[in-house]
Amino acid sequence: MKIKSGKMLGLLTSLLLSGPLFAGDKPGVKGTDDKDKKEKEATTIAAASAKDPYESAHRIFATASTRAEYQHDIKEYSAQQVQATELQKSVARVNKGEARLAIGDTGGFYDREARLDCPEVARLMKPGVFPAIDKPLKAGDNLDNATVAVIVDEGGFGDAFEFAARYIAVLKQSGKNVKVIAVAPPTPGKVLYRTLDSWKIMKLPDGTPFIDGAFLYEGQREPVSAMKGAPKYTHAIHHMSLPTVASSKGMVPTTIHTIPTSPYMVGHAELVAEYDREIGQKPGIHVAYCNQASDSSAGVVRVLDRTVPREDFEESLKASPVKQIYSIQGPGAPVGAGVVDVGAREKEHGVPFAHSTALLVALRNAQARTNGASIGRFAGVCTGPTCLAKATGTPGYIVLKTPVVDWRNGVSDAPNPSTDRTPSPFAPNLKLLRADPKNPNVNEVQLRNLTLELIEDGKQLKIAAAAATAASVATPATAIAVATSAAATADAIGASAIASAQK
Question: Sign of dihedral through CA atoms 261, 267, 273, 279?
């Protein structure tokens, strides 16, 4: 979103140029004292500020990749909170909050609430509409017979699945007869609203409806209840504020140990059954992937730097013993030979993410549904479908293109982060394939590690199948022979594949 006010743009540019990128050396970052580099960064950021204030405001903290750097940034943002303008104070506090979250300090959720304190900051946050809250949802509220309006008004599809979906499941289980209305601001093509509206066909793991309705908010700052045709509700909250009032323990604030985890969304039963059958017909490893992160909030698709080239991503999958690859990148996205285009099915079906959700649920259940003949995995960059995989609880991998750490993934304390597969506390089902800060070949290490992880999955699948066969044979001696032979075969296949992947 462009900001018309020249005064506000000047304030933001001033804040940017006084931020930690330009406040001296950051621990662990080589070359930050280089004058030419600083001048180049300053020119780039100032130009970005004029073009896209939201992106440049968030680029301040998005350069950190280690715990020490984020701790340094927290001090910087704390100092900036005493600046003269409300804009500077609020932006600094939001950035401080996300820096705290990156190192596992969930108190950062409270700092992020500063985005609601200053109208100028609200305008920087996409989609840029923050309705006033007239009936605030608070920690400890009794939700029996309540109707909660969850306003999904920040970020894109990823944050909708990451936070709205995650906490809607908590709200629905925190009282008797709790109803949830998902509220969406107007976006190009009303695509966010249509996505939320599709949640009406989704189910919670216990089989109850995921949401009870959706509403398109077309106001400015007025409460949702002031809009014509608005549904009645007893409580309202912005979806990115939900961690301050709820957790896996119910209506108490989230800590690092009480982040609600998946699965918390189940796809349409008939579509899930279709994918169950499809996976069952081809025993082996089935993988759904997405390689591109993009932003279309301004009406034009803008590819983000988290994107990995499709050809490279598919090549890394095909280098492993994968039986079937599915693209859940979305309608219109290109796919390679032999790859199932789930986006095309989605377009024909007409309900956003319906097929992707069903496939991910089927992949999660593949091993159980096929008696161990198949397993399902997800692999993707940090974007909307990846957050959907978090919601469905599908096991797999997140490929992080650069050493820069998004707070949703958190920092690694390993000397070489690319050796650390530890999942984020927000997604214990997805291993993180991090970048090697010392390797100039972006994606090479992460994609090779993805191939190696899938090779290991293939070995485990062979061993599991052998164990099932061994359990059904007549004598213990025969069972041992079958299991030993299968394990040796799996090791041989794995060694061959690893050698190929490492060339």
Answer: negative
